[in-house]
Amino acid sequence: MKQQTIYKSMIGIMLFFLPLSLLGQGFLKTKGKLIVNEKGDKVILRGMGLGGWMLQEGYMFKLGHIGQQYKIRQGIESLIGKVKTDDFYNTWLTNHTTKRDIDSLAAWGFNSVRLPMHYNLYTLPVEQEPVAGQNTWLEKGFTMTDSLLSWCKSNHLYLILDLHAAPGGQGNDLAISDRDPSKPSIWESEANRQKTIALWKKLAQRYSNEPYIGGYDIINEPNWGFTDPNDRIGNQEKENKPLRQLMVDITTAIREVDTKHIIIIEGNGFGNNYNGIMPLWDNNMAVSFHKYGNFNNQASIQGFLDLQKINNMPLWMGESGENSNTWYTQLISMVEAHNIGWAWWQLKKMGSNNPLEIKLTPGYQKLVDYSNGKGEKPTEAEVQATLDELAENLKTENNVYHHDVIDAMFRQIRSTETIPFKNHSIGTNATINAVDYDLGRQRYAYYDTDSASYHYTPGVNTVGNIGRLYRNDGVDIQQDENGFYVFKIEDGEWLQYTINVKDRGKYSLNLKVSADSSAGKISVFVNNELKIDGLEIPKKLNSDKWLVVKTAGTDLKSGVNRLKIRFDKGGFNFSSLQFAKIK
């Protein structure tokens, strides 16, 4: 969808949140349990993380089997050589995130941006320094940050700097920090620690007088067993002494040149283990936690609320996402009720559970298959053509825009109203794709028995949207040569469609379905009135995938009608609704 279309489609949200986005009220600071502006007004940060720009994690691009960015880069270099690989990565950094992306975030209702930084865009790795113990500064990262800050300022958005990949890497989850395990981590190298401290001092010196810098998120998701090597992600760590000392040292260096900005800290175990970290050592600090894949009840964040109460400090949910729309709406509603701001992960990748989706092309899939050992080696020309295509598809104007995700993150947290996903106008004849049911919350616009992913909940392992295509609700969607369709339909699920009927009258309602294994049944409601009861969906008897089930017809009033298709008995696939006026 083109950028101007994105703006028009979300104009209501933009206007609703306009007072929140005009945040040019000076430096953010902490005041007890709140983040406030210089007027003392409470600020709830509603942010988006720019994952995949400065730092590629393999899963974002169907390369989870490779993991780290340096390995992805090595793989590309083995196919097209170093010079062309360098050119591709320069184009990547130019195209992935631009002013259009930041303009879009502002239009949708966000008021802040979290920048996951890779240290190697700002300084050399310690092993490459010409003089040991000295720091060579690279202008690339600073220039990119300057540009991003200018885009944020023009949109009145705060920019939070996040050191996502620290020198040497900060944990045993290798991809999130692009860590090479054959080299010393930040916890095993004093040189890496000193470079990290120096980098933060350099950044703070550069941006000390920039009020649109919202804060310094000084080290992302440490995950390390300091006292027990078998505790690889640091969940069981009781003291966290090296982590606390590093964060104190970074704070000291920042405060030598910058006394204005909030310093944000993250505990061990991916920002969740704060044993030994307290008490706080600075009077302008916030504590970040990350939340993925567990239930959205107060019990899931109670430990952080307790920590907040004891230490009288603001909480910030620095990362969350990678789930369904229902989960998004529930979580944002809950944390904002506790005056906790948030930053979502992430703006764009290959996949549908983020606002923007990078297209997966046949050429790129061929490259992925080869990297997986499942396909033939592509030629250098094929690789270059695929990477050129990918570089173009990174641009906002070439992304797939998932307005259902934005709707769930903003409108749906304040309203149970359902609105049309698309404009469905019914004249003499019309066809509505089954996947274009209304926008709205679970149990209001649709009902699906598995609506979210709870893969980090002990004893629970749900998936949510199994198809992971087209939309990000719990409704399961697949695709064939004819388009998208609803599959894995279970008993009791339903979908609602808001339609505009030109002329009042009786209309036939035919359903394009496929039942491979057993017969199903549906009921149809129009404006909450049962019109068709227990219509049988027959088992497929021939080689055709799809068949059309016809009904005797139903009365529709002129204007807006709400049509609900209830699946009394599931086990079939659903492609479309076909209307024709009965004369």
Q: Structural class of the secondary elements?
A: alpha/beta
CATH architecture tag of the largest domain: Alpha-Beta Barrel
Average pLDDT figure: 94
Give the CATH class of the largest domain.
Alpha Beta
Q: How many domains make up the 3D coordinates?
A: 2
- For the record, what is the CATH homologous superfamily label of the largest domain? Glycosidases
Ranges where pLDDT stays below 50 over 5 or more residues in a row are 1-23
Question: What is the total tally of β strands?
Answer: 26
Indicate the CATH topology of the largest domain: TIM Barrel
Biggest sheet: strands, sense, closure?
A: 8 strands, parallel, barrel
- Rg, nearest Å: 26 Å
What is the oligomer described by this structure?
Answer: single chain
Shape: globular
